[in-house]
Amino acid sequence: MRVIFLFATIFVAAVLATGHQTHPSMQGMQSLSISYDTPEQFSLLKNYVDDPGFDFVRSTNDLVDVLVTADKIEEFKQLLEEHRMNYTVMIEDVHQLVTEQYIEQQVERRLQARSQDYASGRLSFTYYPNYTEVNEYLTYLTQTYKNIASLITIGNSYEKRSMKVLKLSTGGANKPAIFIDAGIHAREWIAPATALYMVDLMLQNHRDLLTKVDWYVLPVLNPDGYEYTHSSSANRLWRKTRSNTGSTCRGVDGNRNYDMQWMTIGASSDPCSDTYAGPKPFSEVENQHLRDFILTRKGQIKAYLTFHSYGQYILYPWGWTSNVPANEPELVSKLLMNIIASAIMHFVTNNIFTLLSLLFQRNLAIQCAQAIAKSRRTRYTYGTSYNALYPNSGPSDDWAMDKAGIKLSFTYELPGGNYGDLLPASEIKPVGIETFEALKVTHQYVTSKYASH
Ligand SMILES: [Zn+2]
Questions:
Q1: 364 C-alpha to center of ligand 1: Å?
Q2: Where are the beta strands (DSSP E) in 185-300?
Q3: What superkingdom heads the lineage (predicted)?
């Protein structure tokens, strides 16, 4: 399996270097999930990496998910069958699904538009909000929870959309903070929706999470790309920013653009690639704003969480090396001590199963994965980005840990079910509820380690 993993590593690096001049037509496009278990099968798949008809959206050490255009699909399936490779058609017709989802979105939006909640800016979380609706919701929160919620404008995007961080705080000085961002990859719609729904849950029913910790939430880190995917069904699969870097192809992969081992592995120098790292580290103004915001609060922010989709992973640094972070042993042992201490503290209120699970959990990622699993039996894989998923350089979580000194730095790859990034809006609430369990665990850990008691 290790050999296969190494192949996978090379494969993903190759995938990342793929360049498409334009996004291929979705008409007749299918989404396949393909299992492989021999190096021969793997290298066969690898042959298609540079083919503009193929978009490898996910790759692990035993499967790949790939979008294939109509003109290539039959021939490709035949080849898979000839080489005895199992595949499942996840989406029969990508174009049809995207079109249907757009209509559903519009219908639901209009339905909600009649409600008083909509007029106030409140989100129903029954459809994916666009950039304007996200901002209206943030304003609604500041008006509804005047003493807790406030907005910090951290700057404008490339196309001059304002970027707003929601601050949740019950006041008081020297509180530790948890920072959350989402939507650096435009097409991963479940990420901003989940971040916002968790805020909704917190403000409605879990304000105890605000007593000892301040929260900063940047729901849309790539507003231009996000709005682009909302503007037309043809743009639904756009991933990058929308900056013009002087090439015929627009945009940069924001999550390869941080000044942390920039362009060393798993990133592309091709402006047409979906993982183009940009002309230089922090070329993207959106990332500059995030950097400046976090560095201004260096020392206060104790946990950095960035939400993506898909694949059900809780990842921590590093992406550029198979080495684990220097603080992992410290994290594991001290965390356990803290968990035990807090478990005893909460003995009366926690049931025995919670206590036992707390006692036996090895580290925060494991604990968060188990909290999620308990909520809806969703299984998460955890580990370093390099070891658990694939190598990459210049992602925000590596930067947050190394350059901003935030020792608890995690990337969440939220569930995609059978739909990948096209997860139906009906999943927003279930995903939000289960992911909130991980947020509670993170909060508990940050409180027990950093808050004054
Ligand atoms: Zn992503």
A1: 21
A2: 214-218
A3: Eukaryota
